[in-house]
Design a protein that fits this description.
With 270 residues, the protein is of the alpha/beta class. The chain folds into two domains: 161 residues, Rossmann fold, CATH 3.40.50.720; 94 residues, ProC C-terminal domain-like fold (Orthogonal Bundle), CATH 1.10.3730.10. The chain is built from eleven helices and eight strands. Strands 3-2-1-4-5-6-7-8 form an eight-stranded mixed sheet, sandwiched between helices. Helix 7 packs across helix 11 and helix 8 crosses helix 9.
Length: 270
């Protein structure tokens, strides 16, 4: 789907909102002049304006514009307060929310006349290598779904799914960058404990993680097949995996369960 002539408004230009805006412009998906942004913190808008984006003077001004998509990129705890006064201005418009734990039912109650789509991106969209789950609301059209998917495909992988699947994706994939960062930190610490300089070890661990990820993405090889190629019978990797795998699997399941439980708590309080 071509979006060369599409216009996008972004309300909230912190880590995620700013990354979305920059990615859309830098990838050429949206012309800078077709991107409108607002954040109450002027410093968040500076780098976007330097890239050619237009800055609104208020959330109300932004919501009044005739843009093809309005991305709401504010914290879930303040979303209701932010959009409560924008409902009429956003009537009959496509509104895309990235707020974790704020479900479609709540969004559609807050914006009853809007076409709502809920998305769950993760932080690697900053380097256009992220992953985004997309769940259309009841009023969203196929054109809306296609537009949102095209926009977020410019920032990495983007997949349309049911909302219950989106919550699972959030627990595994949207939280995933922190899991990977923890992995890098843990093995850097292990290397330091074994006698390696911290900066050298961290650089090598990071390069290894990037290389494995790139290889799996480019080849489509299953991770376990890749593991088998690296693991010699009776070797050092086999000994390490024997200790690591059961602990990591238990931790992965527990982490996903905890994130899902917190998602449910946020949804209950929204």
């Amino acid at each position: 789907m071509c979006v060369d002539s599409a216009s996008v408004a972004i309300l909230g230009c912190g880590s995620m909102g700013g990354a979305i805006a920059r990615g859309l412009m830098e990838s050429g998906t949206i012309a800078p002049s077709s991107l409108l942004a607002f954040d109450p913190d002027p410093t968040c808008l500076g780098s976007l304006v330097e890239l050619g984006a237009r800055a609104a003077t208020s959330a109300e001004e932004l919501a009044e514009q005739a843009c093809d998509a309005f991305v709401i990129a504010v914290k879930p705890q303040i979303l209701a307060g932010v959009v409560s006064g924008l409902s009429e201005r956003l009537a009959n418009k496509l509104v895309v929310s990235i707020a974790a734990g704020v479900n479609l039912k709540t969004l559609e109650q807050l914006l009853p006349e809007s076409r709502v789509v809920r998305v769950m991106p993760n932080l690697p969209i900053q380097v256009r290598s992220g992953a985004t789950a997309i769940a259309p609301g009841t009023a969203a059209t196929k054109h809306d779904e296609d537009l949102v998917r095209t926009l977020f495909c410019a920032l990495g992988s983007a997949q349309v799914m049911r909302e219950d699947q989106l919550d699972a994706e959030g627990a595994v994939v949207s939280c995933g960058p922190a899991y990977v960062a923890l992995f890098v930190d843990a093995f850097t610490r292990a290397g330091v404990r074994a006698g390696l300089p911290a900066n050298v070890c961290r650089e090598m661990v990071e390069s290894t993680v990037a290389g494995v990820a790139q290889t799996l993405l480019e080849t489509g090889e299953h991770p376990r097949t890749y593991m088998e190629r690296v693991t010699s019978p009776g070797g050092t990797t086999a000994a390490a995996l024997y200790e690591m795998e059961p602990l990591m699997m238990e931790a992965a399941y527990a982490a996903a369960d905890a994130a899902l439980a917190r998602t449910a708590e946020l949804a209950g309080g929204s």
